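Why this split exists: single-chain examples teach little about how molecules sit against one another. For that reason, every record in the complexes split bundles all components of an assembly together and asks for one structure covering all of them. Below is a record exactly as it appears in the raw files.
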Amino acid sequence: MDYEFAYSFKKPQLTNNWILDMNPLSKLNLLIILFIIPITVQSWKWNVMIIIFYFLVALVAGCFKRFTRLYLRFGLMVGLLLFVLRALFIPGENLLYKLWFINITQEGVDSGLQFSTLVVAICGAIILYSIVTRAKDFMYMIEKLGASRVISYVILSSFQSIIDLGEMSKVILDSQRARGIETEGNIRQRIKAFIPILGPLFLGAISNAEEKAIAMDARAFSMPIKNTHLCHLRSLPVGEKAILIAANIAFIGFVVWRLMA
Amino acid sequence: MSYIELKQVSYQYPLASEWALNDVTYSFEKGKLYGIIGANRGGKTTLCNLVRGFIPHFYQGELMGQVLIEGKDIREWENHQLSTEIGYIFQNPFSQISGVKETVFEEIALGLENLGVDKDEMIERTIQVVKWLKLEDLIKKNPNNLSGGQRQRVAFASIIVMNHDILVIDEPTSQLDPSSTAEVFEIIHMLKEQKKTILLVEHKVELIAEYADEVLVFEKGQIASYGSPADILSRKDLMERGISIPSVALLGHEMREKNMAMDSIPITKSQALEQILKGGKNDD
């Protein structure tokens, strides 16, 4: 029996990485600041600096690979698409290149750069937060602030349900394949194979949800008392409080300076 | 002493045309293990849902008669009260995992969190159950990544830690391989030794023969027969009704048909061995 592990729940479970161990609400506060700065500044250079800053934070938090993989897949892909669309179709006076009916203008490129880096910077704040914050820590804090455990359970189990649905769809596709139905090939073939599984997939999910609701009830989920927690978070360290206060003051100062300018 | 009492109970699920239970009367005593067998759609799971109070608290439908738990009608029990009185282990090991805990240790403690148990006691009780069910190797693992058998053992632990006096166990091994089935029955055996009142629905009659104090046969929503495992599971006519009997009992019947001396039809391996040895000694 690993008693050290079992008794580790008596203390806050720390990772010894100061970013990961920060209170989820403190991290949220800092990331909201990073979220708002690009909107306030309206400059692609600032946006790029913030994006680089995200990578640095992910590096320090030890989540660089995970963050980069996710960020490249979602944030940067969306950013690239937005840039191309804006650069190709925003009209302007300074023509840079003409291709058939498409006029690429300096104004289009500037607008594309500004808008795409803004979206990428905002996406980055959300992705970074989801990477450096454990969902259960966030929900613990939300419960401490007065949210019901039903809400926190629904949110947390929704994440798992997405994974479960993915796994179930793989199982159904495998069984389809075993029956000789073509599930691979070009996009059209894949869509053709995927549409028929949607029925069993969602009916199965509904049935599982009912079973899970009863199973949770069997574990006293409907008890009308204040629940306790096996895991808890440490109280806010003085250093973290100081960082938060400084960051918020600096942010307010920055916004005022921008408004004055 | 009757612990759970059913008096002329009938139940029909919403939109169903047939009664799932039809005029069932039976008393379950404290500290006994009841094996519940029967063909599919016989009413076994409905009985479990009724005793645990999922009927009428979760499933609506028409309920007639009385279900008394410790003398109090099931309709008068609040659902949350029942969750502290009666533990329920389900057939499907996959739907019993909460999906919100990162380790098996946390998963087992979830019920205690819901009961508002303080942290120190929660840890001690969880450790105790982990040791008791020999789950030490799993405690750090993510419950969502476990095999069916491992999940079912964790599901048992998650209910056992809540320390109910009554346990309703609905086909716990139906999706498990033989080795996981043996592990689950080892747990059930330990619970029986703790004098828990257990209602166990199970198709593996060899295991019912080994562990049950009483056996109930359900057929078309009614109790078709009940009695001791020796009385019920030795009856060959059960097979005509789609219910299997232990293979040693079948062997006993065949030996008897071939005029071989048998005091009684054995239902467990040890009883069969005893009979064979006895026969051998008589021949000498």
